[in-house]
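Appendix C: a fully annotated inverse folding record. The material below is reproduced so that readers can follow the format used throughout the book. The structure is listed first as tokens, followed by the designed sequence.
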């Protein structure tokens, strides 16, 4: 059997494998996750052919990868991902979270972390 070209449409099962959406208990593919994302994110438009089978091109697969990355790696909610996508923010999948925090936010977070550290130290000393 020959490999499909990268530009060829892929079935929902192939996309689930590509995204590693596998049920850890039984090993089945979680294609329902992709269908759910389609419902939530209107910009995902697979090609639906006879028999209501979904097929995804490379552009749609990249959108799904971005959604998965934002949900799983960045910890955004569905609503957060929608806002992110609606604002047309670009995202390099290798981008670190430090690059997305502005300087005033970093300073604020540092001061809060310092206060927390001091509290933890004082609690440990009082034990």
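Designed amino acids, in order:
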């Amino acid at each position: 059997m020959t490999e499909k070209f990268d530009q060829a449409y892929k079935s929902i099962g192939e996309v689930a494998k590509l995204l590693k959406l596998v049920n850890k208990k039984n090993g089945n593919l979680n294609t329902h996750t992709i269908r759910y994302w389609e419902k939530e994110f209107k910009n995902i438009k697979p090609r639906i052919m006879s028999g209501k089978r979904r097929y995804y091109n490379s552009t749609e697969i990249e959108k799904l990868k971005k959604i998965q990355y934002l949900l799983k790696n960045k910890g955004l909610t569905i609503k957060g991902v929608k806002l992110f996508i609606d604002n047309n923010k670009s995202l390099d999948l290798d981008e670190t979270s430090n690059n997305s925090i502005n300087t005033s936010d970093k300073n604020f977070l540092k001061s809060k972390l310092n206060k927390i550290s001091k509290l933890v130290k004082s609690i440990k000393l009082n034990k």
